[in-house]
UniProtKB/TrEMBL annotation:
This is Transcriptional regulator. Keywords: DNA-binding, Transcription, Transcription regulation. Gene3D superfamilies: Jelly Rolls, Winged helix-like DNA-binding domain superfamily/Winged helix DNA-binding domain. Residues 36-135 form the Cyclic nucleotide-binding domain. PROSITE patterns: CNMP_BINDING_3, HTH_CRP_2. Transmembrane segments: none annotated. SMART domains: cNMP (SM00100), HTH_CRP (SM00419).
Length: 230
């Protein structure tokens, strides 16, 4: 982890996109840009909330302990906010952890200044409220899927969501370097199950795998399998 003051452009992240122009000078004075290496923890579950983090460049997994296991709640990339789940009224602690999946530049804003920013920038506050609502719906949907959807459907849904968020590279593979264990943690299953299901989908010529990389060949056929897994 190292500081890098020059990386942020005051335009790209969730906060800067929505803040009024007159407030951006204050953001510039209060921001701290920090570079995290792959595997470094940005936020640790249980630590007191000292501020809010925005991804300037890179990829991050947001995860939480679940008994002896871990679940990945979501992924964040360029411009996304992380650490907002720790916002609250009294003795707030982070209920999640966040870890860099690759070299990632983070813009850190101390909590007091962020709360002042919300009071001044009404559009930011409104959009953050909508973001919380969408995230709550997504969390509820994921819990229902864990309870009612067969594991094959959950794995396929996870792959489709990753492609929707990160897009594909020039070779057509989903543009995130994700281990099979991380995919299992995101889908709420085990490494062995992910390995088996991906092999099945490859044999059916619905996807192509190359190392960690996944290329989706038949989107509609995969969606039909999800419908059948409900």
């Amino acid at each position: 982890m190292k500081k890098n003051k020059k990386s942020c452009d005051l335009k790209s992240c969730f906060m800067c996109r929505l803040a009024i122009d007159d407030w951006k000078h204050s953001i510039d004075l209060n921001r701290k840009n920090i570079v995290f290496k792959k595997g470094e923890q940005i936020i640790r579950e249980g630590d007191p909330v000292n501020g809010i983090y925005f991804v300037h460049n890179g990829k991050v997994k947001v995860h939480k302990k679940w008994g002896e296991k871990e679940i990945i709640i979501r992924f964040a990339n360029n411009g996304d906010i992380i650490g907002h789940r720790g916002l609250g009224t009294h003795n707030s602690i982070f209920p999640i952890s966040a870890t860099a999946l690759e070299t990632t530049t983070i813009c850190f804003i101390e909590l007091d200044f962020f709360l002042s920013t919300l009071k001044v920038n009404t559009d930011l506050t409104y959009q953050l409220m909508l973001f919380f609502a969408d995230e709550l719906k997504e969390s509820e949907s994921k819990m229902l899927n864990l309870a009612h959807m067969m594991v094959k459907g959950r794995i396929i849904l996870a792959i489709l969501k990753l492609e929707a968020q990160f897009g594909t590279n020039e070779a057509g593979f989903i543009d995130i370097n994700l281990s099979r264990q991380s995919l299992a943690d995101f889908a709420g299953t085990t490494y062995e199950t992910v390995f088996r299901i991906l092999n099945e989908l490859s044999l059916q010529n619905l996807i192509i795998t190359k190392g960690r990389a996944i290329h989706i060949k038949e989107h509609e056929e995969l969606k039909k399998l999800i419908d059948g897994a409900l």
